[in-house]
Amino acid sequence: MADIEEARKAFDRYDADGDGFITAAEYKTAMAQMGDWNVTESVAEAVIASQDTDEDKLLSFDEFWGHLNKA
Ligand SMILES: [Ca+2]
Ligand SMILES: [Ca+2]
């Protein structure tokens, strides 16, 4: 069971504009800031798609949290 406070902090790090959704571009930028330059646009899109249960190309906190608890 993941910690929801920690998950929220991690989510906020990815959600650069704070609109409550992580886009592929935000994910890519956040990974680059953490030093992972291997995450290209298409890798970021694949990561978002793998967790995006309603398929709107955006990762909501519920989807992010659901994925953590599935792992
Ligand atoms: Ca956002
Ligand atoms: Ca979604």
List the helices and strands and how they pair.
Blueprint: H1 4-14, E1 21-22, H2 24-33, H3 41-51, E2 59-60, H4 61-70
Antiparallel strand pairs: 1-2
Helix pairs in contact: 1-4, 2-3
This protein binds calcium ion (2 copies).
One calcium ion binds near residues 56 and 59.
What does this structure look like?
By secondary structure, this protein is mainly alpha-helical. A two-stranded antiparallel ribbon has the order 1-2. It has helices at 4-14, 24-33, 41-51, 61-70, and strands at residues 21-22, 59-60. Helices cover 59% and strands 6% of the residues. It has four helices and two strands, in the order αβααβα. The termini are close together. It is globular and about 25 Å long. Bound molecules: calcium ion (2 copies). One calcium ion binds next to β2.
Determine the number of helices (DSSP H or I, runs of at least 4 residues).
4
The gyration radius over C-alpha positions equals 11 Å
Terminus-to-terminus distance: 9 Å
Taken as a percent bin, the fraction of beta residues is 5-15%
- Arithmetic mean of pLDDT: 95
Q: Which structural class do you get from the secondary structure elements?
A: mainly alpha
Q: How do the helices and strands follow one another from N- to C-terminus?
A: HEHHEH
Helix content: 55-70%
Shape: globular
Q: List ligands, each type once.
A: calcium ion
Please outline the major beta sheet.
Answer: 2 strands, antiparallel
Largest beta sheet: strand ordering:
1-2
Q: Point out poorly predicted stretches.
A: none
- Count of DSSP E strands? 2
